Each structure stands twice: as structure tokens, then as C-alpha cells.
């Protein structure tokens, strides 16, 4: 029996190739469809090759565009960075200049403050030295061989007329001992200022003394005061030496800004205010001090030179022009005087001070005037009432302030009693010889003159009161009273 031949299993022989697109075909199918498959494969290859090319171009373009944008952005940031750096450098330079200027200013202020402190310290040393010496006197030509304390006590008793032993704190010789015949000066320290003034006011008695007629009495001056006085004396000698021979002249005493001096052969005479002890007389000293701080010591020295202390002391412009420190009124006290002030130690005010003897029956009057620089007091003298108006008018006073001044004067004249009007009015262009002013009738000068005439007031100052280098001398300080009240002395 013949064996039956099995059919060929073609599925086992099916195969795939990469070129057949992954189709599982038999040999027969492959051979029959090879061209179709080749065409499909070709188209597939073309399709595959074309798609990536477009994408790569697009990608390349995007990359290039991104690169260009990045480059532009980087360039922008670079410019911005450079501009910021330049701006920061300029700001830093400005800041450095400001800081440098601030440091320089601070350094200048510190230096100025240091100089101010040094000047203040020096001034305080001078003031302390003056305070230390204010109760002292120096005696020259005292006997050398006798007991010095006994001799001084005899001299003081001869001058004062009483024993001052309890008022003397110290008596001592100055300088080193020497074998020379010339005696050393003697320092005498008193317990108070009053005793010292008593001795100085009566020292002329020594001229008639048998034992002490050659003794010279002087203040115990500090080194600064000696230098200052020497300069003033030399300047005065030079000034008078141009007109007269001063080679044989001698000088005694000391110079002060508040005092006037004249030379005489063999002595230096101090010209003082005439005054008297008559209770019916009122003595007044008035001056523009242009800052009391620098003139107070000179004022005290001037008062010591007077035979009789004045009843009133009127000072104008007591505040400094450059107001840089606070002062208190108690710094400027005078013995036996009370103080009335206006605008003292106030900004933008020149200020007035009126020293009044405590023995006077005197009261302050306030009229509530808007004119600021004035003091009014009512004084009872021998059953008479005297209203005293002390005024300072600035040279820069405006029309409104001038009107207030004239109104104030009228208000004071309306008060019961007599009126004494004085002060620094700053009317340099008024001719007081003729009591006239060349100007418009509305000017304050003419209105002031009309007021004086209408109220029968007489202005009594007829000599120049203000002298400054490079400026014309003028009559700026005025004294105005009703005629019968004025005593020309």
C-alpha cells in the first residue's frame, strides 16, 4: 500500500524581511507581489526621507531664531549692565562727594568748635583772674626796712580815717628779695570790693601825708589788662604827640573804653562826669554798649572812677548781633542797683537794660505797646513824679515801627507828671543846631521834630555821640525833657 504524501506546510516557510515591510508572506506570494511591495517600499522610503528633512529644517530655523534672539537679549543685557555700572559709579562719586563735603564740613565745625572752646576757656581764665584780683590793690614805694604790715595798716588808716585791720585779708611783698634799695611792690587784699573802692576814692589824701606822700596805689591788674592798657596809652600818646611834646610827660592810672582822658604835664588826668550829692538832682549814664557781654567789666571800672555813683544807668543794644549763646540777667548784677530789662537774651532783639539805684522810689510801667524796644519807669523825686522813657530805635526801622514809636511817646506824655525821654533814636540826618530835617514832611524825622515842638520838648544833646572808623560821626543818642526840668550839669 503506497504511502500517501503529506501536503507541504507553507506556513512554516513564511518569513519576513525588512524589505518586505514586515509582512509574513510565503515564497509564492512574495514572488507574485514583489513589484508591488517594491513600489510600496520605495514610496515608504521617500515618505520617510522627506518628513525628517522638513522637521530638521524647521528645527534648525527655530534654533537659529532662538540663537539670534538670545544674542540680541545678551547684547541688551550687556548694554543695560554697562549703563547700570556707569550710573552706579556716578552715584557712588556723587555720594562720595557728598560724604567728603559732609566730612570736610564736620571737620571744619569741629575745628571751629575747638577754637571757640579754646577762646571761651581763655576768656574764662581772664575773667577768673580778674575776679581773683578785684579786691586787691598794689602799693609802690613802700618803706622796705619797717614791718610791712604795720606800715600798710597805718597807710590805710590815714586814708580811710578808721582801722581796717579786720577788712584786710593779706599783706605781702611781690617779687624776689634783692639787695637793691628799690622796694618791692606790696599786694593788699581786702575782704570786699567796697573797702577797696573806699581806699581808691580817698587815695589823694596821701599827697599831704608826711610818711606816705611818695606811695602810689594802683589796681592789681591781670597780664591781659596790663597789655591792653599799655596799647591804649601808647596809641593815645602817639595821637597827642603829633600835636604836642610828650617826652617829659608821665602817666598814672589806667585807660578804659568807657573813660575819656586828657594829658597834662607830669600827670595823666581822668575826665569824669560831674555829679553832686544834692537829693534834688538825678544823675543818669546812657550809652550804646553793642553787647553787654564784652563791656560789663569796663562798665564796672568806669563806675569806680566816678566820684558819685549815678542814679540810673541806661544801656542799649545789650544783645550781640550774632546771637549764639544764652545769657542770664543775674550775670550782670551791680551792687546797690536793681535791673529792668527789655528784650534781653531774645532772638532778633537788641535789648535794653536799665540799672536803678535801690534807694530810688521807682516802679516799672507797661503800656502794652507793640513797639518792643523800650522801658518806662515812674520815679518819685521830691514830691514830683517823673515818667522816664528809655528807647532804642533800629536804623532799619520800618514805617509801621516808626508810627508805633511816635504813638508810644504820645502815650507816655499823656501820663500824669513830668517826662524824661532819652535813648538811641538813630536819626543821623537831623540837624540839631536848627532842629530841622531836609526831607519829605511824611518822613519820621520831620514827624518826630513836629512832636517835640507840639509837646514843648527840648532835645539837649548838641555834641556828636557816635564815632566809627570810616563813617561820619553823628548825634544818635538823644535826651529830651520839658525845659524847666532840665539841669544842664
From TrEMBL:
Q: Coiled coil located at which positions? A: none
Q: Which InterPro entries match?
A: Endo/exonu/phosph_ase_sf (IPR036691), Endo/exonuclease/phosphatase (IPR005135)
- Which Gene Ontology molecular-function terms are recorded? catalytic activity
* Signal peptide bounds: none
Q: What is this protein called?
A: Endonuclease/exonuclease/phosphatase domain-containing protein
Q: Where is the Endonuclease/exonuclease/phosphatase domain?
A: 387-481
What's the superkingdom here?
A: Eukaryota
Organism of provenance: Helobdella robusta (Californian leech)
